[in-house]
Design goal:
globular; alpha+beta; 272 residues
Length: 272
């Protein structure tokens, strides 16, 4: 598996761009949820299974928002191309309540002219330079960026949660922002695709699992305490919720797809 990424990537619309090329058949690998929206292009034979183990259709070009973990099985000469975006972009593109789109791989041609999608797909088939990939995507999709970039009320709250590393209670949101807890709940399900509580837990988990992956912590108990978990049992529950496995299984599991994903910065600032 060849993982192509530019750690210095900056763009006014995309948070990150990654290409993964498979040079041999790969066993099933888990893809965690990072709380973002993705526009993705699939080349070749790649199978996807949801968190219930059910096989799902993978369109050639699709958009997906925050949801549960997936597993994918990729075959030789196949490839993924992934454009990472803020989570509210799914709602801006589809105009559909994001919770209703949870765990769905939505064909982008439902919202972008089919000829444009096909042209972009073909033009990106053999391109491995992140700079060139982004340039081609801009040429095809730029006219949509203004509408897709419209800020939603949840954006500021999401950034607050990210900055706090998910270490806060839901009530703090209504104390800090001019919305009731019920309004924030409705807002998040519509625009983010998850409840505020689940999103907070997801953000904290994404921070701590990156620390776990680095293997620089003095002890697991210290790391757990640093991220405001009650105890290891509490941490294990988040492992099952977001990765569908135990900490032990995670440590013993060979998953270069997840490892490469976790090696990137969790919060990525836009160019402007």
């Amino acid at each position: 598996m060849i993982f192509i990424h530019n750690e210095n990537f900056r763009h006014s619309f995309y948070k990150d761009v990654t290409r993964i090329n498979y040079i041999e058949d790969m066993s099933s690998q888990l893809i965690s949820d990072y709380g973002y929206t993705y526009i993705m292009l699939r080349y070749g034979n790649i199978e996807a299974f949801n968190n219930e183990g059910k096989k799902v259709e993978v369109p050639k070009v699709f958009i997906k928002g925050t949801g549960d973990y997936f597993t994918v099985k990729a075959y030789k000469n196949s490839s993924w191309l992934s454009f990472e975006l803020p989570n509210h972009i799914l709602h801006n593109v589809t105009k559909i309540h994001s919770f209703k789109n949870r765990n769905k791989l939505i064909d982008l041609s439902l919202y972008v002219d089919d000829d444009v999608v096909k042209s972009m797909y073909e033009n990106l088939r053999e391109v491995n330079s992140i700079e060139e990939i982004t340039k081609i995507a801009d040429q095809h999709l730029r006219e949509n960026y203004k509408d897709w970039s419209v800020l939603q009320p949840s954006v500021e709250i999401v950034q607050y949660i990210l900055d706090k590393k998910g270490m806060l209670a839901v009530k703090e949101l209504s104390d800090f922002f001019p919305y009731t807890e019920r309004s924030i709940e409705r807002m998040f399900k519509k625009e983010v695709g998850a409840s505020p509580y689940r999103f907070i837990c997801l953000v904290r988990f994404n921070y701590i699992i990156r620390e776990l992956e680095k293997k620089e912590h003095k002890s697991l108990s210290k790391l757990i305490a640093d991220y405001d978990y009650y105890d290891q049992s509490h941490f294990e529950k988040d492992f099952q919720k977001f990765l569908g496995q135990s900490i032990r299984d995670y440590k013993n599991d060979y998953n270069p797809l997840l490892t490469n994903g976790l090696s990137r910065a969790y919060i990525k600032r836009s160019k402007y």
